[in-house]
Every structure is written in C-alpha cells, then in structure tokens.
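Dear H.,

Thanks for agreeing to be a second pair of eyes. The structure we're designing against is below in token form, covering all 381 positions.
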C-alpha cells in the first residue's frame, strides 16, 4: 500500500513528508524534486513570503546512493523564515507579542479555534496555511519519477484567473507555457490575467481561478467499478478537494454534461485491426466506471479567491466579540498557478497509488514486469 503524511507549520522549523510503499530500486533525482518545489513558489501575484523561501528538499531516509530501498522515505524542507519567528513559534516558553484574534472569513481561523479550544488563531493558521503544500509537491515530484518508469506523465496549466479565461478559440501554445509565469498556454490571455491580478492588488483584493491537470500515457483499468472507495474518479476528486481553497472539481466535460444530450455527451467506440479499440473524442476525461479507459485523464479544479485581503472584510475579535476588520497576515493576491503545481502533484500521488494497487511490486523489476505483462494482454484483447 502506498501512503504518505505531511507535518509542519508555515513558520515552524521545517515541513516533513513520510512516504511508504514506493518500490525498491527507483532511481531518485533530487534536482527534479527541487525543480517542482521552485515551480510552486513562482507565479504572478504571489506574496512576499515566496521571496524569502527557496525551497530545497533534504532526503533523510529511504534513499541510498540515488535509489529507493523499499524503506519509508522522509523528505524535509527547511523553512528559512523560521529564524525570524522563533519568538512566536518556539516549542517552549511563552509567545512574544499579541495573539491573533481577528478571524479571517474564508479561512480555517474561527472553526479551528472553536474546535481545538485555542485562544490564538496562529495555532490554527500555521497548519491550515498552504505552505504545507510544499511537502505534497515534494512527494508528488517523487511520484512523477516513479510514474515515468511506466510511461505516465503529467502537466497542469491555468485556464482562468478571476474570469479571464481561455476559450476554445485560444490556441494552446505549449512553447509559451514552458516560459510562462502564470503556467498559461496563451500569451495574450496571460497578459490579461496579469492585468486582472494587478487591478485586484491595487484594490486590496484577491482572485481565484481554474487550472487543468492532464495525465498522459495511463494504461486502461486503473481504479475499479466494484466498490465506491475503489473508483479512481472519486479518489481524484478527494485529492483535488484536499488542496487549500479548491472548491470544485470536474472530470472531462464536467458540469457541461448538464447541458448536453446523451448523443453529444459520450465518446463513441471503434475498433481497427492492429490499432485495437479507440475513440475519436475524450469527453469522459479518461475515466469511465471509476476506471481509466486509456485516454488522457483531464481534471479541472476551481480555486476560490485568497481569503486574506489587504482591504480586510468585516469580522469579530474572538477574545472580545467586538466587530473588527479581519487580520492581514502576509499573503498572496492570486495563487492559482501555484495551486496548479500542487494539483499536478496530487494527481501524481493518486496515480501512483492506483498503479501500485493494480501492479504491486516490492521492487521496480517486479513492478515493471507486471506492467509489461498486463499491457501485452490488453494489446491482444
Ligand atoms: C498555493 C496556495 C497558496 C495560498 N496562499 C494563501 C495566502 O497567501 N493567503 C491566504 O489567506 N490563503 C492562501 N491560500 C488559501 C488558504 O490556504 C485556504 O483558503 C485556507 O486554508 C482555508 O481552506 P479552504 O479554502 O480550503 O476552506 C492558498 C492556497 C494555495 C493552494
């Protein structure tokens, strides 16, 4: 079984992830993990924090001389900013300064302190913060390296920022994407997205948006129709919704299904000698009956606008119950491009889990043999 946990606070000493279940013998490229971490830190509209941190992973267990051994793997990312926060984030003693008491609408602040019986909102916001997603991106980067071994690759791109959206008429330019600050495939749309972010920043406001994750090279039959918790589309939706501020997920044409008759909603099936089964459309987004169908997996997720506003919303002080303006923790104006990197990582994690559930394998040799055997059988079907 593949599983992982993350630990760590936004201004704590470090973030940690413990991963279990990756086969022995996987070659690990640390630079590639750091590249993914850097991508998460970029993006037009990010706040000052990202300028302080240059995330780098330390692998402190489970990898020896560039290969996994089958042991649990521990990844650690140091928080550089911690040095400036020891007076407020120490393990012992008393915190310096006043507690955070003005709860932010749209954040975990109020529900968190009520549920966990805390008096300082910092006890909640430190872990609710999306800083935690750096650990997930590191795990996802390792999963991407594992998936590459069986021909599966992933990419995520931003399709909408605050209503400035890619349309079907906008050409997808993947060369532009590679250099794009917004992880957008169209230069003109990206320019308008940046303008929208500039305007929001000037107004003390924030923006959300939509990103799309595409998984290429998946074999048919990952996930299963046989039980609710084996359905891969359900696992994908849960993984996407677990990302901070993600409030909706679509697979394939998604909510557009509500506007289409059946005759225009499904992907017709064809068969050709030598080629096997094929489709000429992919409205299902690569998933039917909770299983991959061999087409690209297409998942969209919507991110709500960042809850911390520089022109704060009305709120209540949780000590005095007086009407106040919400607190202004240093914050992003828009983080959809960063969220798309996290989305790509979470998809890589779900795909890794699905692939290992299907093929098992304590070591890469056994795993790859099982994949080959299965692909051969499907080719002949
Ligand atoms: C990459 C990323 C960066 C984020 N940056 C911020 C931020 O700077 N300020 C903020 O208030 N919320 C930020 N958020 C969103 C909050 O973490 C999130 O809204 C909050 O934890 C409450 O959870 P919920 O929106 O899922 O209900 C970010 C989310 C992501 C995915």
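And this is the sequence the design step returned. I haven't edited it by hand at all.
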């Amino acid at each position: 079984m593949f599983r992982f946990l993350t630990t760590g606070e936004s201004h704590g000493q470090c973030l940690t992830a413990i991963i279990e279940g990756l086969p022995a013998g996987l070659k690990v490229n640390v630079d590639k993990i750091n590249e993914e971490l850097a991508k998460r830190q970029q993006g037009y509209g990010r706040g000052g924090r990202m300028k302080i941190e240059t995330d780098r992973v330390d692998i402190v267990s489970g990898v020896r001389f560039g290969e996994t051994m089958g042991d649990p793997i521990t990844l650690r990312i140091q928080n550089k900013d911690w040095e400036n926060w020891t007076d407020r984030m120490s393990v012992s003693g008393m915190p310096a300064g006043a507690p955070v008491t003005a709860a932010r609408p749209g954040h975990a602040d109020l529900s968190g302190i009520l549920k966990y019986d805390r008096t300082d909102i910092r006890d909640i916001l430190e872990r609710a913060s999306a800083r935690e997603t750096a650990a997930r991106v590191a795990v996802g980067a390792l999963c991407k390296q594992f998936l590459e071994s069986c021909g599966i690759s992933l990419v995520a791109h931003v399709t909408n920022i605050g209503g400035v959206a890619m349309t079907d008429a906008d050409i997808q330019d993947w060369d532009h994407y590679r250099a794009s600050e917004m992880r957008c495939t169209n230069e003109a749309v990206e320019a308008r997205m940046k303008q929208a972010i500039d305007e929001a920043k000037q107004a003390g406001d924030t923006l959300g948006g939509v990103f799309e994750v595409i998984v290429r090279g998946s074999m048919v039959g990952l996930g299963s129709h046989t039980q609710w918790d084996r359905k891969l589309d359900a696992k994908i939706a849960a993984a996407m919704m677990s990302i901070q501020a993600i409030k909706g997920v679509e697979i394939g044409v998604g909510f557009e299904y509500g506007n289409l008759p059946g005759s225009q909603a499904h992907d017709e099936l064809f068969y050709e000698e030598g080629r096997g089964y094929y489709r000429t459309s992919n409205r299902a987004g690569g998933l039917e009956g909770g299983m991959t169908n061999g087409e690209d997996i297409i998942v969209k997720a919507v991110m709500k606008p960042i809850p911390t506003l520089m022109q704060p919303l009305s709120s209540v002080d949780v000590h005095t119950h007086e009407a106040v303006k919400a607190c202004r923790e240093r914050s992003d104006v828009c983080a959809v491009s960063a969220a798309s990197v996290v989305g790509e990582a979470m998809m890589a994690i779900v795909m890794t889990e699905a692939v290992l559930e299907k093929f098992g394998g304590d070591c890469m040799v056994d795993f790859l043999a099982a994949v080959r055997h299965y692909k051969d059988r499907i080719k002949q079907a």
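Two observations from my side: The domain at 3-380 is CATH 3.60.150.10 (Chorismate synthase, AroC fold). Residues 47, 107-108, 128-130, 133, 243-245, 304, 306-308, 331-332, 335, 338-339, 342 surround flavin mononucleotide (CB under 6 Å).

Warmly,
E.
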